[in-house]
Write a structure and sequence with these properties.
- The complex is a heterodimer of chains A (221) and B (218).
- With 221 residues, chain A is an alpha/beta fold.
- Chain A contains 6 helices and 11 strands.
- The longest helix of chain A is centred in the middle third of the chain and has 13 residues, at 103-115.
- The relative contact order of chain A is 0.19.
- Chain B is built from 4 helices and 13 strands.
- The mean pLDDT of chain B is 96.
- In chain B, a hairpin with a 4-residue loop joins strand 6 (107-109) and strand 7 (114-115).
- The two termini of chain B are 28 Å apart.
- Chain B has helices spanning 6-15, 86-94, 131-137, 198-205, and strands spanning 22-25, 44-47, 51-55, 76-83, 100-103, 107-109, 114-115, 140-144, 156-157, 172-174, 178-183, 186-192, 209-211.
- The radius of gyration of chain B is 17 Å and the shape is globular.
- Classes of the chains: A alpha/beta (221), B alpha/beta (218).
- At the A-B interface, helix 4, helix 5 and helix 6 of A face helix 2 and helix 3 of B.
């Protein structure tokens, strides 16, 4: 019997090694799997490469992971915010590497990884500093930049409800990067508000089919 | 000299958004445009974090942390609105499905180049968000900005000195002094605030301006 439910987040994250690439869902705090991140901090994995839209807000979640010195490199579109002080401090000290990626290119690179695409041409960032050194091509009257997929060892995401096969539904704008990150990682770990019996999720409304999900933990948030 | 304040600028941009338009409002100043969209026009606001049909800010105490806009402020969803993931959201942007985006700017060049993400200062932490995608993706790119920097330099320039967000992408600029189209021949002023003359605007702007007042819409 397939059962992707894990009893504790500790068990679900026990095998994350040092040096892993970890995608973290969320846009700001909406959809951020904060309890899983707290557990990852306690677990101790370090030298991580993290993929998220931002570089953490205030002192919790991703900001706490960065503040704990566990992140070697971050790929994101919008690190600088009023409350990104943990990232700002380490970045200014040269202690964290930043790969700045336009938000749509970030999303499409993650999607491409999950979809088995080797690379793609996008018009975004052509002629800008963020395309410097990249291959370009003129296609049907427009200029494009070649971009490569972003694969991950783990994706930690937050959804609203899941069944034991790992089918997921999300809540409002907390969906954001969850579905594409789930498809791009070798191991996708999901924290959900509620677990339900098989058949309780309307198949017409499942957003992430369980094939993209490995581990599910019910947490209160 | 009379200048538009932020609300007047937002109201002026809002006048140009037609019935039925799909629109993305950038974070900061452009977000204000939502408050001035003419009543009676059905206009659908997109937010790059996966929301179509953004409604007004919720009353105090009714905020939902799972329902935010690109500026991470609490919003509501209009009846008929929808949620989607980030790759779909940027397919809407990059795939040229949005009719308008409204962005802030540091500089706009006579060729329509946009600089709005980075001052280029060596100690600045760069952040780009969705601006580069919006700049290449929206059918019409509208810029909303103060005409002059705090130290009086024109933000309309021959060539951008700040790093570009997008090349040749801006269609129209709304400032606190004027509305300016980007044309094949450079900047073309179509409106000025009351009491301002072209000569003064020209002197403040420091770049060649043409003048072609738009016929007032009925």
């Amino acid at each position: 019997m397939i059962n992707k439910f894990f009893a504790t987040p500790e068990a679900a994250l026990a095998d994350v090694p040092d040096g892993a690439t970890v995608m973290l869902g969320g846009f700001g705090n909406a959809g951020m799997p904060s309890e899983l991140i707290d557990c990852l901090i306690a677990q101790g994995a370090t030298d991580l490469t993290v993929v998220n839209n931002n570089a953490g807000n205030a002192d919790t979640g991703l900001a706490a992971l960065i503040g704990a010195g566990r992140v070697r490199k971050i790929l994101c579109s919008f690190p600088r915010q009023a409350d990104s002080w943990h990232f700002d401090k380490l970045y200014r000290a040269g202690k964290i590497e930043l790969e700045l990626v336009p938000q749509g290119t970030l999303a499409e690179r993650i999607r491409a990884a999950g979809a088995g695409i080797g690379a793609f041409f996008t018009p975004t960032a052509f002629g800008t500093r963020l395309a410097e050194g990249k291959e370009t091509r003129h296609i049907a009257g427009r200029d494009y930049v070649l971009e490569y997929p972003i694969h991950a060892d783990y994706a930690l995401i937050k959804a609203d409800r899941a069944d034991r096969w790992g089918n997921l539904v999300y809540r409002k704008s907390a969906r954001n990067f969850g579905p594409i990150m789930a498809s791009a990682a070798k191991c996708t770990v999901v924290q959900v508000r509620e677990t339900v019996e098989l058949g309780e999720l309307d198949p017409e409304t499942v957003v992430t089919p369980g094939i993209f999900v490995n581990r599910v933990i019910k947490l209160h948030s | 000299m009379k200048r538009f304040d932020r609300k007047q600028m937002a109201a002026r941009v809002a006048q140009d958004i037609p019935e039925g338009a799909y629109v993305n409002l950038g974070i900061g100043l452009p977000t204000l445009v939502a408050d001035f969209l003419p009543k009676g026009r059905e206009i659908i606001l997109h937010s790059e974090n996966g929301v179509m049909g953004i409604g007004p800010r919720p009353p105090k105490g009714e905020e939902d942390e799972d329902l935010i806009n690109a500026g991470k402020e609490p919003v509501t969803l209009l009846t008929g609105g929808s949620y989607f993931h980030h790759a779909d959201s940027f397919a809407m942007i990059r795939g040229r499905h949005l009719d308008f985006c409204v962005l802030g700017a540091f500089q706009v060049s006579a060729a329509g180049d946009l600089a709005n993400w980075h001052t280029g200062a060596p100690d600045a932490i760069p952040a780009v968000g969705g601006a580069m995608d919006l700049a290449v993706g929206a059918k019409q790119v509208l810029v909303m900005m103060e005409h002059l920097t705090k130290d009086g330099k024109s933000k309309l320039v021959e060539r951008c000195t700040y790093p570009l967000t997008g090349a040749r992408c801006v269609n129209r600029v709304y400032t606190d002094l004027a509305v300016i189209d980007i044309t094949a021949g450079g900047f073309c002023v179509i409106e000025m605030v009351e009491g301002l003359d072209l000569e003064t605007l020209q002197r403040l702007s420091g770049v060649p301006l043409k003048y072609q007042p738009a016929a007032k819409a009925a």
